[in-house]
């Protein structure tokens, strides 16, 4: 695997290094030893999957608070997404910055998302699947988010939004949330 640092502190693109032969290839997508050697989380308690039918579907921007904060390793196994992260760690050099990453079934890239980031994506193709390794159990009481169009961040999404949940449409302004 190749581990490629990004502009956001602690966010890493993970690329498989396939061993090709006449049948196709074999590639590791997660390895306790290799992740451990990079100082990355290795204890994942969930492997989860989402399917989005329509191109332009938006999910996010999600995170769990406090002791339930999650590390996620996000991979697009079918179709394509623009994955977006916002650094919400007040002491980080990249606090409040966002960045977008194209994860596609074709490029086979995964994104390593440390604790303290809001995560979301928009599908670039119909019939898109996203797979996650997640380091914490789902804790609905600790689950929260920021709005995809919050002016505090000004995220540039690639497409008009075709589908979004009520929950995601209605996250309150980050500026209000941090001061209350
Ligand atoms: C996230 C999650 C949801 N659920 C349930 C709750 C609900 O009935 C249904 C759909 O949940 P949501 O609407 O939150 O699904 P979704 O909007 O796809 O949530 C996901 O969004 C992306 C951006 C992430 O980063 C993920 O960690 C996760 O938060 O699945 C679980 O059972 N376990 C889980 O870990």
UniProtKB/TrEMBL annotation:
GO terms for cellular component: cytosol. The keyword Isomerase applies. It catalyses: dTDP-4-dehydro-6-deoxy-alpha-D-glucose = dTDP-4-dehydro-beta-L-rhamnose. GO terms for molecular function: dTDP-4-dehydrorhamnose 3,5-epimerase activity. Catalyzes the epimerization of the C3' and C5'positions of dTDP-6-deoxy-D-xylo-4-hexulose, forming dTDP-6-deoxy-L-lyxo-4-hexulose. It comes from Neoroseomonas eburnea. GO terms for biological process: dTDP-rhamnose biosynthetic process; polysaccharide biosynthetic process. Homodimer. This is dTDP-4-dehydrorhamnose 3,5-epimerase. CDD domains: cupin_RmlC.
């Amino acid at each position: 695997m190749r581990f490629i640092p990004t502009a956001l502190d602690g966010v890493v693109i993970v690329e498989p290094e396939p061993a090709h032969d006449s049948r196709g290839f074999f590639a590791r997508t997660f390895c306790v030893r290799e992740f451990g050697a990079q100082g990355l989380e290795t204890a994942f308690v969930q492997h989860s999957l989402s399917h989005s039918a329509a191109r332009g579907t938006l999910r996010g921007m999600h995170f769990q608070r406090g002791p339930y904060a999650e590390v996620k390793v996000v991979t697009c196994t079918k179709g394509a997404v623009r994955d977006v992260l916002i650094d919400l760690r007040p002491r980080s050099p990249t606090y409040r910055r966002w960045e977008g990453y194209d994860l596609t079934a074709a490029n086979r890239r995964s994104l390593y998302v440390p604790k303290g980031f809001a995560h979301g994506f928009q599908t670039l193709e119909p019939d898109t699947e996203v797979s996650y390794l997640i380091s914490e159990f789902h804790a609905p009481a600790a689950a929260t988010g920021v709005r995809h169009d919050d002016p505090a961040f000004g995220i540039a999404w690639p497409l008009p939004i075709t589908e979004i949940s009520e929950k995601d449409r209605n996250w309150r302004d980050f500026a209000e949330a941090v001061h209350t």
